[in-house]
Structures are given as C-alpha cells and as structure tokens.
Amino acid sequence: MSRINADKQLEQWIDKYQNLIYSICFQLTKDYFDAQDLTQETFLSAYKSLAYFDGKNERAWLCKIASRKCLDYLKHSGRKQIPTDGQFLISCSPAQPPPENEVMDNALRQELYNCCMKLREPYRQIALDHFYHEMDAGEMAEKRGMNLKTIQTQIYRAKAMLRKLYRKEDLLHG
Q1: Quick check: 149 and 156 in contact, CB under 8 A?
Q2: Fewest Cβ atoms closer than 10 Å to its Cβ: which of 22, 80, 92, 161?
Q3: For residue 92, which of 77, 156, 100, 146 has the smallest C-alpha distance?
Q4: Which of helix, strand or coil describes residue 43?
C-alpha cells in the first residue's frame, strides 16, 4: 500500500473509530489524558502495522491494538513511550514493525493466558475464548449453545476478575 493510501486509511480509521478506541482506553486506564495518548498511540501502531493487516474486521483489529497498548501501559505505567510531534510517522515505515513489538505481544499474551488460567469456571474458559482466542460473544454463545446475554454477562465478570488479577500482579511485581 502506498504511503498516500496508508495515510488516507489512517484518517478514515480515526474518523470512524476514534471515540470507540478512546472509550476502550479510558475504561482501562481511568485517566482522561492517558486515554488520549493511548488512543493516538493505537492509531499510530495500526498505521505502522498496516502492511500486516489482512483487511478483515478492522474494528476488532483496532480494538485489539488498543487493549494491548493499554495493558502494556498499565503493566509499565512508569514508562511511557508515546511519540510526539509526528516523529513516529516520519521515522517508521509501515512495512516492517520493530522486533520488540512481537516480544512484548508474546509476553503480554502469556501473562493474559496465565491470568485466565487462575479464574474459576465458567470464567476461565470465557476469558480464554474471548480475550485470549479473540472470539466475540456471538461466536461463544453459538459454540456453547447458550444465550448471548448470558455470555456477555460472563465476559463482563471475567473482565472484572482479570482486571483485579492484573492489578494484584502489578503490586507483587511492581
């Protein structure tokens, strides 16, 4: 994809998903300014990784990036790496992400998996399917033959439990 097309794609995503991404970031950080910064970082990361995007379900892809950015931020809240003054767009090519991104993603996924495994059933499997395997509530309800609202409630509860576990882990390791 040419740089001009990539720039247009980024603008479209910002116009369409900015409020959604901000609300995800705010829900996770509970801080207005951090949520703004992480929203910007989410879109910049998406721009940088555009060459790896398969073109399917851009909303879910952007939400996943936002969630990972926030989880990383919460894990390392003393260390912010948010680009300034457009330096990111100038210095980074969307064709090749830095190798440390993959290492960080793998570490976060492993930590997420470990936290999911600490939950009791049915929340363990709900958390694994939704947060780790990235299934949506509709898919999960169909797979289990359960009511969608029941699955959504279990996801909500599993998310609260995971949030507590992440905070507890941060206190133990931070």
Answers
A1: no
A2: 80
A3: 100
A4: helix
